[in-house]
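Lab notebook, bench 4. The sequencing result for the construct came back, and we need a structural model before the next group meeting so we can plan mutations. Quick request posted to the team channel:

Model the 3D structure of this chain.
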Amino acid sequence: MLTNKNKQYIFLFILAIIFYILFLIIRPFMSAIFASFVLTFALYPLYKLINKKIKNNVLSAAILTLIVLLLIIVPFAFSANIVAKESVVVYNQIKSRDFSLLISKYFADNSGELLKTVIDRASFFLVTITSQFILSLPSIILSFFVMIFLTYYLFKDGERFVEIIKKLLPLKSSTKERLSNKFTITTKALIYGILFTAIVQGIIAGIGFYIFNISSPLLLAFVTIMASLIPFIGTALVWFPIGIFQIISGNVFNGLGLIIYGSLIISTIDNFIKPKFIEKKANIHPAIVLLGLLGGIKVFGFMGIFIGPLFLTLIVEMFKIRSGDSNEVQSS
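Done. Here's the predicted structure in token form:
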């Protein structure tokens, strides 16, 4: 006959299997799920404002979700069409260029081999990232509609969901409030600090590509947004090889101009935006941001940019709470 202790072990084992199966089911949509949380959180003040006027949760959530759908899908469809066309042009230009011949004009010996390798790899990066984006469009569209679907219900039932989470946490009310505030501040800082900086850098880079007569400025601006999320190297991964390529091709003015513009403006703008939002407002150590970015991207993909630093920050905060007050966790 089974004892109560054995029954508990069996129950925990079955529960672990259920959670594991649940994880396997939702794993393909993890990024979409977290994206819906981020999107809802960012736009929740607007939802509250609409609901205050309409006084109907369902209608308010539906209106804001429809607005979000239109604001995302219309520019995305327009941009995707242009990016797809420009990527073909860029690919053909890269394939038609003889980098060895161009470099040999400026380097008599083998000292230009490293430069050629850098340009080749940068060109391969530009083609690869664009090709992957286009090939993954069906998966992106599916994840997008999952995100929109969840966003609607999070707008409608978000407060109830948060209250359930708070009740499940075995912590004192003051500690729950502290973690909730930290979560709010950190999420805001990460959204505005990381995503806003990337978009600003992409726009500024696109302007620079247009000024210095670089072909396909919209495509390169999109790639710059993606590259800006990479720690340390960031946007230089895009504008520097393009500038060198322009110089080698004989467009010295445009090449030097782009490198100077990239060094002084594109790559330095994040030094003004990110610290203002992340380090000062959220009080997150740069090491946590870096580790969170690298680990988060590896595990969760694009949304790991936000999820990684957020989880690490909350874990650090819980350690602070635990070390500061051993009575924070309620006794069972």
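Residues 29-323 form one domain.
Will bring this to the meeting.
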